[in-house]
Hints:
Layout: H1 7-22, H2 30-40, H3 48-55, H4 60-67, H5 86-101, H6 109-120, H7 127-135, H8 139-143, H9 155-170, H10 178-188, H11 190-199, H12 204-216
Helix pairs in contact: 1-2, 2-4, 2-5, 2-6, 2-7, 5-6, 9-10, 10-12
Amino acid sequence: MFEKFTDRARRVVVLAQEEARALNHHFIGAEHLLVAVLREAESEENSPTAKALHLHGYTPSAAVERVGLQPDTGSEAAPEFLPFTDGAKEALQASLRESIALGHTAITPDHVLLGIIRSESAHVDSPAAAAITTLGLTAEDLRHPVGPSRLQLAPLVRTAFLHANDEAVRAGSEVVGAEHLLLGLLDADPELAKRVFGALGVDTDEVTAKVRGIVTGTD
């Protein structure tokens, strides 16, 4: 598979190894691949990854800090050879599938990030999944990148996106849809939601329950 990697994607793998070793971790996980993709994006401001980060108000360096991986100070020095975890292997395999699905002939760092998002959606408690949620990144951000905007997202809107991402993950969806965004908006500012829906004579708890039931297929 690595023969399909571009030079930049191969650099991501090297950076992931360096990141893991610097933290004295004895493995290369999806979280190390994530940090490596973010670091590599610092040199490619027009890449889908950089644009997706900008959409959510982050620079690549700020995103790396937000991930916040911690060093392991309680074990022996990491060995020269660091194995990939099952999560990292899944992410790399998923990056190949993402590349093929998009009709591309090579795997770039952006495909690696797509692979991480796709594979970690099933591991919501993993460090990589938690970081992706924190950053508000979605597969759609990368598959359909937009140009940089002069407008910044308000904190409430960013919070709503994060809640929407959580709702999509909880429902087992690979994309964040309008239904998840509606739930995210309801969760982000319950008081505002009550004022808006209250003016229409609608109870927000009933709206949330109804939408969540439709999303999860229990209604």
